[in-house]
Amino acid sequence: MRSTLTCLVLAAGIAGAGGNYAVKQQFPIAGPGGWDYLTVDSASNRLFISRADRVLVVSTVDGSLRGTIAHTEGVHGIALAPDLGKGFISNGRADSVTEFDLGTLATVATIAVPGHNPDAILYDKFSGRVFTFNGRSQDISVIDAVKGSIVATIPAGGKPEFAQADGAGHIFFNIEDTAQISEIDATTAKRIGTWSLPKCEEPTGLAFDVAHKRLFSTCGNRTLVVTDAASGRHVASVPIGNGPDGAAFDAARGLLFSSNGEDGTLTVIHEDDPDHYSVLDTVATQKSARTLELDAKTHLIYSVAAEFGPAPAATPDQPHPRPAVLEGSFKVLVIGN
Q1: From CA 40, how far away is CA 296, in angstroms rounded?
Q2: Which helix (H) or strand (E) holds 282?
Q3: Residues 67-122: tens digit of each pLDDT
Q4: Of 14, 55, 123, 258, which sits most exposed with the smallest number of CB within 10 A?
């Protein structure tokens, strides 16, 4: 049995690891358009931001614009392949993937995707393949990252959302409309397991503790669900905020983060051990800051947010139109402790 002193020391250590997170800097970014995923390139201090029809590349040091990758219609995500010197962008409206040079940011090729609305995108170094998770066609396109050619299509079993790889040939992704998580063998391009996410509605963001084989799904009903990646066993449910669309795990600190766009908060969770989790803090960010990216080198977290005008009138083509981002309000939030 632990002594009272030991418990106090452990509690102090946990609080110190996860305490005092706050928005430390804000970088205003000009230009119109919404956004989706963010991707950090730690080696070159760059942040890739999806922005409607282009990808903005900004400095994580001062927020200055390093470059723009144009003609990415309906862009959702950016996957980096540093070992190949390449990057890949999913273009949801164009049903394509843009391949670009990671150094110069020049477009190298445009790869047509047989699925519709490629959304999340992931590069798996183990198999040398890129995977796009296609929301409208509910399937996954597999691309040879060297040749830039389609090699397989995998039925997703529902609307796929964000994905994570374990570095050993296994890829996991959320299925939003069925509240499940599924596993792919990256080499055979086959789904090899699907498990329910208890007490979860509409899972989107996904983070991964690879060392302990724990998957973290953020759900629309203010819940983060922890799953054993080896067995599919439900491990834990942790309360988070409203409107989550991003998750990240800082392995060095044992901290888990959920960005909650409707509340304008960031939930900070400590991994006490692989089966137990404690909410340490709820950090004020900004409403609409729904997605995030962690820089594992600096332990800084990046999110983006904006203010919006009134929604335009509905049309037959756009029955649920989104309000436009107010010019001058879009910004990068840098969160740290």
Answers
A1: 9
A2: strand 276-284
A3: 999 999 999 999 999 999 999 999 999 999 999 999 999 999 999 999 999 999 99
A4: 14
